[in-house]
Amino acid sequence: MKEKKILIHGGGKIATQVADKLGLEVKMHNGRRITDQAMLEVVQMVYGGLVNKNIVSMLQALGCNAVGLTGADLNVVRAVKRPVKDIDYGFVGDVTQVNQKALSDLLENDCVPILAPLTHDGKGNMLNTNADTIASETATAMSSAYQTHLLYCFEKKGVLKDVNDESSVITSLNEKNYAEYLAQNVIFAGMIPKLDNAFSALKKGVREVVILEADNLQNIENQYFIGTRITLQ
Amino acid sequence: MKEKKILIHGGGKIATQVADKLGLEVKMHNGRRITDQAMLEVVQMVYGGLVNKNIVSMLQALGCNAVGLTGADLNVVRAVKRPVKDIDYGFVGDVTQVNQKALSDLLENDCVPILAPLTHDGKGNMLNTNADTIASETATAMSSAYQTHLLYCFEKKGVLKDVNDESSVITSLNEKNYAEYLAQNVIFAGMIPKLDNAFSALKKGVREVVILEADNLQNIENQYFIGTRITLQ
């Protein structure tokens, strides 16, 4: 693809492995990591240092002028520490602002921003932030300057009717049939935050959202029927 | 200071702590870390993720538009894996090229590059590289476009005649009296790589090198006699 690109990556499994090796207890709530000070250091190390720089160095070897960024670098993604309600998620950031100008400047210089799922609060603190949310917020912000396509890559062929059957891909999904699937408990729980993010992005100006298998990404130009294409209507 | 700045940081002590917690054995030779695959991951995490992003987020909080970079990001510092002679240093990089253009572009955009002591080989591999060397090589490369001052900050007041006496600062040092001090074994062994780097940078176009206490950096504008000023003659 000749289009300008931004890559947002995760690293949760590696963070959990490193935390285990360091003897830290990994605490989750509804699939979201609870991030105390020690765990913040782990995700900062794993996302910002290990995973991000492995991706950047590999892309550079392929001739792609990648630049790895956390939300703090160039102030690209600002967040606030999530307020404590029933659960204290710790050093977790809810995105407040994506710096479209800084990212556009890089894109216009033929750089490819590689965003780690880390934000900052503008007061000197790094925060852990879900990669899907950063992807959705970034796509939304970029849509004020570009026609933006948001591609969620994961290990399944797309959104499945039956999580155990890779041939059950829902090829297109709109708000109405998403609501129906939800009412019928068809959608796997782990998909719901990703889909909520997708619809949120579409409502704020993103042109298209596709949920697809990472290995299929290279085929997306040539084949229309890859993954699940999400639209409002 | 209103001058444009680049900060190069270290992090060796924290890397050693993290390696200890992970149960890895830290191997050194002549004060240089031997970097096997597991240690490369540690330094990548600690330098690129933990230390770099802590500095960047703190600078952003102070209104400084910092951007944290390893050598791989924007291809700013390219290196080759050190050839194995008597000692195999492992994944350690000897700098071959600093991307003056990429750094200048950032500086001209009022960004402040914060360089972690990590390089890449252009083939997809990250490498561990001494921060003093990156500082010297970067200052040298930047001197083709800017009048460049190279400031080495550390925990002592400057180069000392007596390592146990902070009042014994050598206020100025040139090649001739450096050779004399070396012959007399006056210079503390740990200073020698730093001083060799300093003279190398001066010979390649850097205007001035100062070795000073980090806490004194804020006073360098107002007081001439801070630290050790190094010149060729």
TrEMBL record, chains A, B:
Pfam entry (one): AA_kinase
Site (Transition state stabilizer): 194
GO biological process, alphabetically ordered: L-arginine biosynthetic process via ornithine
Lineage, top ranks: Bacteria, Pseudomonadati, Bacteroidota, Cytophagia, Cytophagales
Catalytic activity: N-acetyl-L-glutamate + ATP = N-acetyl-L-glutamyl 5-phosphate + ADP
Gene, per the UniProt record: argB
Domain Aspartate/glutamate/uridylate kinase positions: 4-212
Main location: cytoplasm
Pathway in which the depicted protein is active: Amino-acid biosynthesis; L-arginine biosynthesis; N(2)-acetyl-L-ornithine from L-glutamate: step 2/4
Physiological role: Catalyzes the ATP-dependent phosphorylation of N-acetyl-L-glutamate.
A GO cellular component entry from the record: cytoplasm
Keyword annotations: Amino-acid biosynthesis, Arginine biosynthesis, ATP-binding, Cytoplasm, Kinase, Nucleotide-binding, Transferase
The protein's name in its UniProt record: Acetylglutamate kinase
Cellular compartment(s): Cytoplasm
Organism: Thermoflexibacter ruber
Residues reported to bind substrate: 11-12, 33, 128
Enzyme nomenclature, EC number: 2.7.2.8
Family of this protein: Belongs to the acetylglutamate kinase family. ArgB subfamily.
One of the record's GO molecular function terms: acetylglutamate kinase activity
Top-level taxon: Bacteria
